[in-house]
Design a protein that fits this description.
Length: 81
């Protein structure tokens, strides 16, 4: 599987998670999606989607985009401590 198609798959999966949490009106949707990514995605998958964000995050829906931004911030804080 090429890197590009892997990224496309991760974007699709992140968007599905974003869509699910977007329907949850009583919670912080991006926080819920970020928590899901943190709990259920392999660290390599999280790294790959954060790298995609660093290159613009093309294709991510608003909730998924914000969730990945939060993941990136958490990862950055861990690296700096």
């Amino acid at each position: 599987m090429s890197s590009h198609s892997t990224t496309d798959t991760l974007v699709k999966m992140a968007n599905q998670i974003g869509d699910f949490f977007s329907a949850q009106r009583s919670i912080d949707q991006a926080a819920g999606a970020a928590e899901h990514l943190k709990k259920f995605w392999d660290p390599r998958m999280r790294t790959k989607i954060i790298e995609h964000l660093a290159h613009g995050g093309e294709g991510l829906n608003p909730t998924a985009l914000e969730a990945v931004k939060r993941l990136a911030e958490t990862a950055k804080q861990r690296t700096n401590t």
